[in-house]
Amino acid sequence: MAANNIVVLGAGVSGLTTAYLLSQDPANKITVLAKHMPGDYDIEYASPWAGANYMPVGKQGSAHHAWERDTWPALKAIAEKYPEAGIHFRGTLIYNRKKDQESATGQWFSELVQPNPWYKDVVPDFKNIPSDQLAPGIDNAQEFTSVCINTPVYLSWLVGQCVKNGAVFKRAVFKHIADAANAHHTGQKADVVINCTGLSSKTLGGVLDGKMYPARGQIVVVRNDPGPMVSASGTDDGEDEALYIMTRAAGGGTILGGSYQKHNWDGTPDMNLANRIMKRAIAIAPSLVKKGQGIEGLDIIRHGVGLRPLREGGPRIEKEKIDGVSVVHNYGHGGFGYQASFGCADTAVSLVKEVLQNKSRAKL
Ligand code: FAD
């Protein structure tokens, strides 16, 4: 059986999940090439900054909905079978205020906070919280069981799975997507390059996707553990500020978020915003600190900023020939790269198979 030489460009959650699925077929000889790898923290590398959890935001009936729906079983299976992957189940509370509907954060979360969302049939233990139990100002709320991913542990686990299946990892930086086809570890030209470069697809030669833009997310990572995860539809501190709390598996600390600042590229934490994030978190989850304490009761590990790779019109998962090289794109996953990772990677893998079938036919 002839081998398929495949290059995956990018080692964030999109590239690693795609490589992980492809590496399960021994006919695929995979090289993962990237400027940044798990272990790095950089403003050009979104994946390590994510919480990350599963809070579906895709509109009912959209491709985004299908990608998130199809990702839950995979994350659930990993959480159950591979505790070393850094994914655990966690109770989740979602609070909605109708007044947040028009804000940037409210629009991002509009599906998540609905009383009757599509994902109620996907996640376990979904239930609406009775209105007489809601705090003043909250219009509706729900709880369910979700997962929280310790992203540094999980990304490294994905690398390990790919390496175990024979994939080769190399550091490399490319100015043009087509050049990646010449960097396969066998020395032969790759049959297909999978573009998982996230926000950098805006500037990568051969791609230059003008629809890409960032939504800046600032976080505070603390050692405190408040219990369940919490997300709210918005805040009173600004329409692009957000409020979410999640404790990562395996000692990864608790993420306090955040912000959703579109077109903001600033990689430096804003300490005023950090104070607001911490105050809001304690107000909604007082169990974060000891009784009577304020933000001085938080034990801070680090402040961080990541750029969510948003794309007007949604992620781009499609095939294209660029300078004679077959390319499959899988980028533009905004704030949902983990919770849609397996659904998106599955779609990308189907396109890779189409490219490889055409290659086989051409040889006959
Ligand atoms: P990236 O992680 O940015 O990876 C891009 C890769 O491409 C890197 O390896 C980079 O080095 C490489 N690359 C780029 N250009 C080149 C080049 N020219 N040459 C070589 N290599 C190149 N999602 C969720 O599902 N749940 C959450 O709870 C969640 N929370 C988030 C919180 C924050 C604060 C942020 C910032 C994001 C969050 N996200 C969450 C979104 C998620 O992090 C992103 O959607 C996801 O990480 C995007 O992954 P990616 O692999 O597409 O891109």
From TrEMBL:
GO cellular component labels: peroxisomal matrix
GO MF: D-amino-acid oxidase activity; FAD binding
Catalytic reaction equation(s): a D-alpha-amino acid + O2 + H2O = a 2-oxocarboxylate + H2O2 + NH4(+)
EC number from the UniProt entry: 1.4.3.3
Domain of life according to the entry: Eukaryota
Keyword Repressor set for record: no
Keywords for this protein: FAD, Flavoprotein, Oxidoreductase, Peroxisome
Localization (cell): Peroxisome matrix
Pfam families: DAO
Protein name, entry field: D-amino-acid oxidase
Similarity field: Belongs to the DAMOX/DASOX family.
Cofactor: FAD
Leading EC class: oxidoreductase
Domain FAD dependent oxidoreductase per the UniProt entry, residue ranges: 6-349
InterPro entries per UniProt: D-amino_acid_oxidase_CS, DAO, FAD-dep_OxRdtase
Residues that, per the record, bind FAD: 197
Binding site for D-dopa: 335
Record's keyword annotation contains Flavoprotein: yes
